[in-house]
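Usage example:
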Amino acid sequence: MDGVAPILSLEGISKSYPGVRALDDVSLRLRPGEVLGLIGENGAGKSTLMKVLGGVVAPSAGRIVVGGREWPRLTVPDAQAAGIAFVHQELNLFDNLDVAANVLFGREPLRGGPLRLLDRRAAAARVRPLLARLGADFAPETPLAALSIAQRQLVEIAKALAAEARIIIFDEPTSSLTLSETARLLAVVQELRAAGTAIIYITHRLAEIVDCADRVVCLRDGKLAGTLERGEIGHAAMIRLMIGRELRALYTPPRRAPGPGGLTAEGLVTEAFPQARADLEIRAGEILGLAGLVGAGRTSLARALFGLDPPRGGRVLLDGRPLRLASPRDAVRAGLYLVPEDRKAAGLVLSMPIAENVSLASLHSFARLFLLDRRKEAATAERQVASLRIKAPHVGVVAATLSGGNQQKVVLAKWLSMAPRVILFDEPTRGIDAGAKGEIYALMRALADEGVAILMISSDMEEVIGVSDRIAVMHEGRISGMLDRDLFSEQAVLRLAIGQGEEAAA
Amino acid sequence: MNRKDLGLGALLVVIGAITAFLNPLFLSTVNLLNMANLIGLFGIFSIGQGLIIITAGIDLSVGAMLALLGVVFVDLLVNYELFWPFAVLVVLVAGLLLGALHGVLVTRLGLQPFVVTLCGLLIYRGAARYYTQDGTMGFGYAGDLDTLTWLASGRSFGIPHPFLALLVVALVVGVLLHRSVFGRYLYAVGRNEEAARHSGIDTRAVVVGAYLLGGLLAGLSTVLLVFYTSSVSPSSFGNFYELYAIAAAVLGGCSLRGGEGSVLGIVLGTVLLQILQNLVNILGIPSSLNFAVMGSVILLGVLADQQFGRRKAALAGA
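Running the assembly step on the lines above writes:
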């Protein structure tokens, strides 16, 4: 294989955002008929690198050589013209059109000369052999809406074939597929490789890499962490590459042992994983980290506990007493609060002033009869702004003008001005600068020391290990293991997150 | 008073001054009182419309609702000789029920407000016409309605009662919207329903509340309007009034995206629309141009507001 000229090479690609170096001098080569596995933790730079290839992100330095031509950066049409195609985890298809229309989108066969009418028959005739090649069991005329996710993925691949793509990038293609669907997809990958297509395969599921990759490249913190050749590919080697950075000391131990109370979930069934049952105990006074891969069901669990998607089964107890969770109202009344992952969409009303955001969940306590006492409202907000050190000229400033960290603090202020018993944090420091991160960790610890039970969902390994008192790891809707502080290690968390060693832990 | 209300107020003064300059009759007591009466009649259901628009909804059915409630009201008074306070009560409750129906269809069944109230428009108009066999309903020699007639269309201190009614409604709804818990929820739900839900607010109840108030105010408007026209012709009574209401609310600073608007703004919007109508009459502009004038002014107003907003945003960003 070494003798074959590469179809794609990236040389010294770097990408900086203000304050962040997302990619740092990354080089890699891809040959025709080769499957390159690309691995790395969340935030390691995989998506940025793929965006560079897709022409969505312009690199700050480096060069891209595709098919013998050299580019400082690609545009989306450049990338398409160079034969690069993507099969995404979020599918880029039109579910209001049929299969043929999706596959040939932008290159529809026409008839009627200047009338430029669609030639549906020719389209179907062109798409049918592509579907046959992929072993698809549906016709070109099938409406996309009638297809399963796995079938839609085949449509995406057919689309790549129709575009005569020479490089196909699979980005987490199996995250929502069943085992048999995954096996079929891997067979399709083999078929494409045999036909000479170059493939980049990104996944968190290392077993798939072992199955299909010829070579593995690992990214860590935006840098190339290492390469494994065919003979060296194995779970242990890959995990070693993915980890391997020094952990900073973030941990502040609790001032006293966790109390007796807390939140307990027994056999909780969420909407995302109707077959799985999750058992979890968050003790009063502790910070429980909840780790897992993206899509493992962590956010679904938090949404169920907060009553947003009421649990489909099982029960939730607060201090031993069963809790009714039909809506967030029930949760808020019980002192169970959620700091959501998307603070702009769900945590704040951006166009409202700080004071009105802080009071939103406890408005009745600011009302005499039914009229609002705005002075009391402002005074409460000012107290929170001072104690959380929110940087804003005054509490009448609209939330939209604040920085990410300060916005997150406003979300927190909303709950801290009430009577928290349990707070669920979903990715509390995403998009927040390092200084504000430290402040948020300190706040979580202070709350825990006051006896609040804290759950922290995080995809940032450093954060999970550095901040938590215990770690629960989720895999496909279940808690695949619990780790006490003395057992914390990235390997242990990662192994549980990919569903390994579950039996041993359970 | 916010910036939008100030701008609208300024626009009112300018248009009023120009009209008065061209025809001093504009400022005659008779003309002003006549306008006040119309402002009262149109303002009340426009406020209801504004509340619904603040939840990011819309009510296209107001006009048809006025017609249906109108024929029922006259029928109750004339043919059933129901004691008038009961008839008024029936109309108000019926308005509330229709509002509740819209609210439930929107929140529980997830239908779009536009679709729900468009169907309402067609159904209520049709029902009103069927109810009277398309005939006009008048009071004829109905029994003792002097008190109600005085209440709905009389004057106190020389001021028409519909205008006084609007002042009361504006004050009550103004306090509710700008000073109460419900009002705050209305803005929060209209602007970001997800965040409101995450704060433990029963967002459906809030939205239903807005439709209920809209229905109630439509019921009140029916009573006043019936005595203004003194008969109800089911195919034309209230025709296009939903559009007057939407226009007044939008002029008054309500965004169709929800979460914005004030009661003062809606009242000023109503005033502007009535001045424009009056201006067409009083300046001898062909009355067929009525709608065209109204449409142009609304378009210019919204455009000016947007340009101003964009410049402000650009300045803030710089």
